[in-house]
């Protein structure tokens, strides 16, 4: 005789083995791009000092690669689709399922930071301001920046770092083109970073007086995986991931 499955309502699951923690729940507006989001979450986990699975930060990831390109919109708003409604929509969905702190591992999208916070109704961690604290703590006043044309045009690095006394040094036209190639033609296309281009651009920045160089687009975090970089480089993903752990533990 075939038995019917047990009624879930009658199963005694007992008492929870642990009490609820005071950790805030993290929401990640992701997919911008997918590889950067996956690596970012990995770093959040790695920076969380715990001894059991249950002690980790409860995290929801809204990976939405269909969000329109942020740089394209910032450079040509008349002819490019606006990503802001989609960014806010994903943030609201994360809010509605319980997220209390939001992070977006796409630095160019920080150009819309104020609009996102107002539209979502939750705090969105600001990676560039967190970077400012990192620079201040290390006495860095001259920072080389490898980031998108959109980030450069909107001066989000200059605006975010101005209160910390940090001057931004950008590559020249050729170097900036190489940076965009590494972001779009290499990482977003599923290829390895062009090591020669990376070394040329970073060498230019150090040669122009940078005390450190920030991998200022989350796609460039791939350099930390593929290359043996020294401590003159800082990964914006690491800065933001550490901030997430700190804020969720408050």
Q: What does this molecule look like?
A:
The radius of gyration is 20 Å and the shape is globular. It has helices at residues 34-47, 70-75, 84-96, 113-120, 127-137, 149-154, 156-161, 173-187, 195-207, 222-226, 236-248; strands spanning 26-30, 59-63, 101-103, 142-146, 167-169, 212-215, 233-235. It has 250 residues and is an alpha/beta fold. It folds into two domains: 26-127 and 240-248, Rossmann fold; 128-235, Rossmann fold, CATH 3.40.50.1860. The strands form two sheets. It has a four-stranded parallel sheet with strand order 5-4-6-7. It has a three-stranded parallel sheet with strand order 2-1-3, sandwiched between helices. It is 44% helix and 11% strand. The model is unreliable at 8-20 (pLDDT under 50). The longest helix is centred in the last third of the chain and has 15 residues, at 173-187.
Features:
250 residues; alpha/beta; Rossmann fold; 2 domains; four-stranded parallel β-sheet; three-stranded parallel β-sheet; 7 strands
């Amino acid at each position: 005789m075939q038995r019917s499955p047990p009624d879930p309502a009658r199963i005694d699951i007992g008492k929870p083995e642990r009490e609820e923690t005071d950790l805030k729940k993290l929401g990640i507006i992701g997919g911008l791009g997918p590889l950067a989001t996956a690596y970012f979450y990995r770093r959040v986990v790695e920076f969380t000092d715990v001894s059991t699975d249950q002690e980790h930060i409860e995290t929801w990831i809204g990976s939405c690669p269909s969000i329109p390109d942020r740089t394209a919109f910032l450079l040509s708003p008349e002819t490019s689709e606006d990503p802001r409604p989609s960014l806010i929509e994903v943030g609201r969905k994360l809010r509605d399922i319980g997220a209390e702190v939001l992070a977006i591992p796409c630095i160019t999208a920080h150009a819309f930071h104020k609009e996102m916070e107002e539209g979502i109704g939750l705090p969105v961690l600001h990676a560039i301001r967190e970077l400012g604290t990192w620079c201040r703590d290390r006495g860095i006043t001259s920072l080389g920046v490898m980031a998108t044309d959109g980030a450069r045009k909107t001066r989000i690095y200059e605006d975010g770092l101005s209160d910390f006394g940090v001057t931004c040094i950008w590559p020249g036209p050729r170097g900036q083109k190489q940076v965009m190639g590494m972001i779009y033609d290499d990482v977003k296309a599923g290829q390895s970073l062009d090591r020669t281009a990376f070394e040329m651009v970073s060498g230019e920045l150090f040669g122009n007086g940078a005390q450190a160089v920030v991998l200022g687009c989350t796609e460039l975090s791939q350099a930390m995986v593929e290359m043996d970089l020294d401590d003159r480089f800082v990964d914006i993903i690491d800065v933001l991931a550490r901030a997430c752990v700190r804020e969720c533990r408050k």
